[in-house]
Amino acid sequence: MKNDKNIINRVPTGFPKDFLWGGAVAANQCEGAYDEDGKGLSVADINRFRDDIKIKDKHNYEMTTDDVKDLLREDNGYIFPKRKGIDFYHTYKEDLKLLGKDGLGFKTFRTSISWARIFPNGDDKAPNELGLAFYDNLIDEIIKNGMEPLITVSHYEMPLNLTSKYTGWYSREVIDFFVEYSKTLFDRYHKKVKYWIIVNQINLIGYESFNHLGVAEDKVENLASAKYQAVHNEMVACAKVTKYVHEKYKDVEVGMMLCGGPDYSTTCKSEDVLGTLRHNQMEYFYSDVLLRGYYPNYAFRYFKENNINIEFFDGDEEYLKNTADFFSFSYYYTTLSSKESYENGNTSMLNSSLPANPWGWGIDPIGIRIFLNKFYDRYQKPIYITENGIGYYDEIKNGKIDDSYRIDYFREHFKQIKEAIIDGVDVRGYYAWGPIDIISCSSSEMSKRYGFIHVDYDDYGKGTGKRTKKESYEWMKKVIASNGESLD
Fold it and tell me: What is the pTM of this model?
């Protein structure tokens, strides 16, 4: 075989021919049907919408057991949009047709399976067959519409019972419950689903603490230690599941997922650069463990300096050697760190030097190229961008939605992803977040819209549910048909 000595020919020219263009949703944000067909309550079902808080202050807060009791009162008058979602549980066939080969042209579709729909209480002796049957049909419909399924096993859908009867992921018993749940899914769907993410955005233990880990702050003595113990238990569970899959289903790939990427330093001062470096280490500490198979020493130092204690149980470190097959991450905006922010709680700041959407999320297309290069340099693993998009208020005028701002956002990000591929990054797929409008994760509102398809519901769940294609729909359709070449 002739050896091509012309190095120019080794440089990629654009998106690979088999690149997976797609979109992503989460069960708790779209399905609705929160109490149908045997489903139990999940942590997402008590996420309330609040119209008495400013937009930028809306997020999922820490929770106490009293908070949970209050949210479960029938007479509280609260609004829980995720309980209804966009009624995807009943409309998925029509919605997937709009997204698949005869519609937008997606090659792949990512969604999650609601843990509480399969094991309503989390510790049930047997799975709920009606829940499994729904996902049988949903996955078949994804494939029927020409899309490769990518399934997330855990996406903020922990059975609420595991937070009260136990202490969420802080309780070691939950490891076995989750492994049993995961085995049920892989045994059932492995022939249909080849790509899986076990835990969505595993590094969001600060912003999605109860929603992610199910740890009520009044049930533990030291919340910071409890969170890291909980995520340790979660990573052990991920490793156990990965081991099971690798041994039993050789053609199935298991990935891990982070939210976002490394912060930028606020200044060029060495102190701020170092503070930012240390902050970033504790953001990709999770992927270091799940892709390299062990705890890095910088994490042990961080725990020691911050009086955080984590207990390793017999066999934990051996299990962690079972590492994921690919890396994935969500990307929405970039944030900043400094010496001061690291030393005062290891926090981040929004990048105010950038244009932003109404929620203050800075628009930084070049950032996605930076992150792709950084993560590929670090892990040398295939990468899937499993969430990317921009939330805006969309207006219907004369029956149409001109969302040119969304087109501009995607265009500039696609250019930078292409540049990263030319750099040599092994990017294999891209998933636009919320390709059909869904309920916001952090604020439980409908008005923060991401989709190429508008859904006629408001923040209070009122509306017809009618689906309307936005201007970005036809634009995205051309992008996919041209494999990322037609961006005008």
Answer: 0.96
